[in-house]
Amino acid sequence: MMLFETTDLTYSYDRVTALDRLNLSIAEGSRVALVGANGSGKSTLLRILDGLNFGQSGTVRFRGEPMTEAHFASDEFAFSFRRQVGLVFQNPDVQLFNPTVFDEVAFGPLQLGWSKSEVRDRVGETLDRFGIAHLKDRVPHRLSGGEKKRVALASVLVTDPAVLLLDEPTAALDPRSQSQVIDLLVEWGGGAKSVITATHNLADLEDIADRCLVLDGGLVVAEAAPAEILRNRELLERSNLIHAHRHHHRSGELHSHPHVHPSE
Amino acid sequence: MRLHFLERTIDGLHAGLALALDAENSAAAGGLLQQLDARVKVAGLFSLILAAALATRLWVIAAVFALAVALAALSRVSFRVLATRVWIGALAFTGAIALPAVFLTPGVALYRLPALHWPITAQGLTTAGFLLLRVETAATLALLLVFTTPWMHVLKALRVLRVPVLLVAILGMASRYILLLLETAHEMFESRKSRTVGPLAGAARRHVAVASSGVLLSRSLQLSGDVYLAMQARGFRGDVYLLDDFAMTRFDWLALAAFLALAAAAVWADR
Amino acid sequence: MHIPDGYLSPATCATLFGGAVPFWYVALRRVRKALHTRLVPLVSLFAAFSFVIMMFNLPLPGGTTGHAVGIGLAAVVLGPWAAMLAVSTAIVIQALFFGDGGITAIGANCFNMAIAGALVAYAVYRLLAAGAAIGSARRVVAAGLAGYAAINVSALLAAIEFGIQPLLYRNAAGAPLYCPYSLSVAIPAMMLGHLTVAGFAELTISAGVVGFLQRSDPSLLQSTAGRAAALGETAARALRPLWAGLGALLILTPLGILATGSAWGEWMARDFSDPAARHEIAASSFHRAAPLRAPEGLARWSQIWTAPFAHYAPPYIRSATFGYLLSGMFGAGLIVLACLVVARLFGANRTWRTHSCMPRPHSCRRPASAGPAGVEKSLDTARTSACATSKEPAT
Prior knowledge:
The complex is a heterotrimer of chains A (264), B (271) and C (395).
Chain A: E1 2-13, E2 16-27, E3 31-35, H1 42-49, E4 57-62, E5 65-66, H2 69-73, H3 75-84, E6 85-88, H4 92-95, H5 101-111, H6 116-129, H7 145-157, E7 163-167, H8 175-188, E8 194-199, H9 205-208, E9 211-216, E10 219-224, H10 226-231, H11 233-238, E11 242-248, E12 254-260
Parallel strand pairs in A: 3-8, 3-9, 6-7, 7-8
Antiparallel strand pairs in A: 1-2, 1-4, 4-5, 9-10, 11-12
Chain B: H1 5-28, H2 38-54, H3 58-74, H4 79-104, E1 109-112, E2 119-121, H5 122-148, H6 151-157, H7 165-194, H8 202-233, H9 250-269
Antiparallel strand pairs in B: 1-2
Helix pairs in contact in B: 1-7, 2-3, 2-5, 2-6, 2-9, 3-5, 3-9, 4-5, 7-8
Chain C: H1 10-35, H2 39-53, E1 58-59, E2 65-66, H3 71-78, H4 80-97, H5 106-129, H6 137-168, H7 183-216, H8 233-238, H9 240-273, H10 275-284, H11 293-306, H12 315-318, H13 320-345, H14 349-354, H15 371-388
Antiparallel strand pairs in C: 1-2
């Protein structure tokens, strides 16, 4: 049985079609990257996979069960889904809505009905594991970009979800924080967990994914192993993931080569 | 020349951010009040504020004020901070309001202003004293709470005063985003300032302030929609739970008893 | 406008806090019902917004600057109930964290600004903007006047609260314990500042931002635009706790006087019956200073009030203080009553109950979907879609 399966999924807003009869299936235990330029619909897709938005037509199934608004209206389905699936938002100001780091990490477990002592232990443990115990009483507003991202990951991973959805996990981070975040993810995803990452950062692709889906204009335009995708210059250029820079050399020749923007 | 209006607003916003930072640093410093359980501080300092509010004798309020100053000294909250954050501002504001009362309150005339013949009455001086002392005392105690306690602990401790958990959560989330919006507004005004040469005309200044408010409002409501999704993603279904790691030590109980005894003594002395 | 600690007696503060509680209760219940789980983030974010704009330095015509509270804006965008909660939240944070406004006066400040202010602003806006198109200039004017009226009603309430302090609370020597100014001083002093500077600050921000939203995000103005509908049975039932609260306020206030009234009575008796004390007062106030006039006013008020009770009422009812207090209370009561009448006239009540808190679901962004589930859903879509493509703010 597939972990996620969409059939003819369409989602639009403001007369803009974000997803256009999208079909995809993601297997249990796989590490998948959704690659696409800004506006390719990958954030929207992640929110739909997390049961936060719902398509206007088509179906989405999670382990064979349809994900509709009616299903999420039942507490039983919603809680069981939220226990298994975690989503880390791109914008840390959206992800970190609690007044302190401690409350942030405790939010998920408390909502899922863990006992208070269990929450206390687990939060302490997670803060230590992510190396953010010293930030416990800090307000998220005054954390550095890298610290914010670590808190965001901790706040979702504290409940140990089997499925992790990540929206641009390394966006707006300095190179060192980027590699720290990737290390954390690689370490965490060592088991049989499923990780779906939306990104336009091609540099990390091989570290975070075994399989790559290229999204363009609300459709999956290619699907292959990361190495293969990275070799396909023509595809990457067409999907706006890389673009050619032209410049003059001293000798006078006009030279052009593809150019990747690691993070924006 | 009058200070540029953008600069004044920027200064105001900056002061708000600076206060939050000062409070955070001071709450992390070691001192008497910092060691106490937040609930003890909320209950204790509030009872002192109440005692000062109930007092009908000046010396009783003055005694509570002296106690507040002593607590500040023991908690490493410097007089410079108290003076700049509380005393001077309250003195200027309430002082201006209390001044006419010195002449307007009927009572025994102690002195008459030359030429104007306005009487300074004993009752007038007393009433001005009441107002000023009470304002300074309450403001000092309130600042002590915030400067010796992490803000979220203050909010969670409000539960001992029976504040509903939903409101505590709203207060917490609002304070978290106040800092973000303050900074956003700060950036908007700064960038506006960098693009402005010379003073703006009145209407243009109004336009800047109003447009900034409008942008900020749209952004706040957008953010609220996004935050709502992020909350749902982690299992939020409308019920709010709070976790605190408060634990009362023997010292906390002792301090609570001391606070309540002092407040009770103030009320008793006032009979 | 924010009343600090020390200006109002604890009894006054407690009474106003007691008066605010039922409004908060009704507001929480209604907003929760209309918004479900959306309540926490929406009220929190709007509170944060209203806190921040209170810090804006608003240039006014004539070269002065002022600060707005944003009550008018809150009522226009959120409706009165959610606005009450959001502005109250901002007031509480200001008092606790920034020391702006007193801690004991939280109830009073919330009652004056968040509660009375939001109700007045909403009533004025609905009255003046009734039937106007979302983009019409009339809505801008209505929002401006709503803000202007709201802040002035708040100021008037605060002035009344100030003004009754010296009547009720004095020490043995006759020195006022809290705010020293009687109604005849407090009301003109407060209103002068608010009818001019603060009122125009509020007017500017409400009108200006509504005008801004008409161009940039008109869907935010939909929810309070309203269409006529009858006052339903359920609405009346939902309002019951509110009436109970107002009743409690009306009962509690005289109780507060009973507790303190004797002290005041003594003071009155001593100062006005004892010839020596009277001589003192006369001697000290013989000049053009205002105090002499206050007792005259007192007497006049006292006559007006005591007339219907002249023969059989207990003595404290005949006292001028009681008259002042009741008139203050009736003032607040009348405002609320006026709001409800206006709401009923314009059929706003249904809107208050269900749609008051968020941009109307079926706005321009998506075709309407019927039913409560659809409301929630399409709201989500509208909000998220608006931000899905927006750039992350620089941090």
